[in-house]
Amino acid sequence: MKGGTTAAVRRACAEFVTVTSTFYQVPTCGIRVLAARPLRVRGHWATELFGDHNPQTMLIRVWTKTAVRKEIMSYGTFLSTLCHEFCHHLDCHKFGFADSWHTRGFYERAAALYHDARETPPKKLFWVAMPGGRWRIDWPRTNRSAPGRVG
């Protein structure tokens, strides 16, 4: 990623997707590695798109640079995004979900894939209940937890 071109990153991502698809016994999806993330500005807020997955075209897109400063994103953030988008693909093709929602199970699968890919000990995800039966990850508590303590 620091070399300024996406060709080597695209090849590595394609290999990751192929190996992971084979392991989970799902069809391999395509991968596009793009430069600066899209920035969406609406009124007084803005969002950046890190990646996406299109279930109809079976294509994952990931971006390598930040939206505003156009700086190379960290390896951990990039790999986390790739794992996240692959889990959308997995939901559609392994579990038959028409829509892949950001459920607690989804985030647990994405975290497990990320730590397996990095060969790092898994972290227990800590959850905070939100109104309406929703949940969010308590990132400060999750990041403070001792590596390898899952249960």
N-to-C series of helices and strands: HEEEEEHHEEH
Rg estimate, integer Å: 16 Å
| Sheet with the most strands: spatial strand order | 1-5-4
Q: Outline the low-pLDDT stretches.
A: none
Shape: globular
Kindly state the number of beta strands: 7
Q: Helical amount among residues, as a percent range? A: 25-40%
Largest sheet: 3 strands, mixed
Mean pLDDT: 90
Q: Which labels suit this protein?
A:
single chain; 151 residues; alpha+beta; three-stranded mixed β-sheet; two-stranded antiparallel sheet; 4 helices; 7 strands; 38% helix
Overall description:
The chain is α+β, with helices and mostly antiparallel strands. It is 38% helix and 23% strand. It has helices at residues 7-24, 75-93, 104-118, 139-144, and strands at 30-36, 39-42, 45-48, 51-54, 59-65, 127-130, 134-137. The strands form three sheets. Strands 1-5-4 form a three-stranded mixed sheet, covered by helices on one side. It has a two-stranded antiparallel sheet with strand order 2-3. It has a two-stranded antiparallel ribbon with strand order 6-7. β2 and β3 (45-48) form a beta hairpin. α2 crosses α3 (104-118). The termini are far apart. 21% of the residues are buried.
Quickly describe the structure.
By secondary structure, this protein is α+β, with helices and mostly antiparallel strands. The protein has helices at 7-24, 75-93, 104-118, 139-144, and strands spanning 30-36, 39-42, 45-48, 51-54, 59-65, 127-130, 134-137. The strands form three sheets. A three-stranded mixed β-sheet has the order 1-5-4, covered by helices on one side. Strands 2-3 form a two-stranded antiparallel sheet.
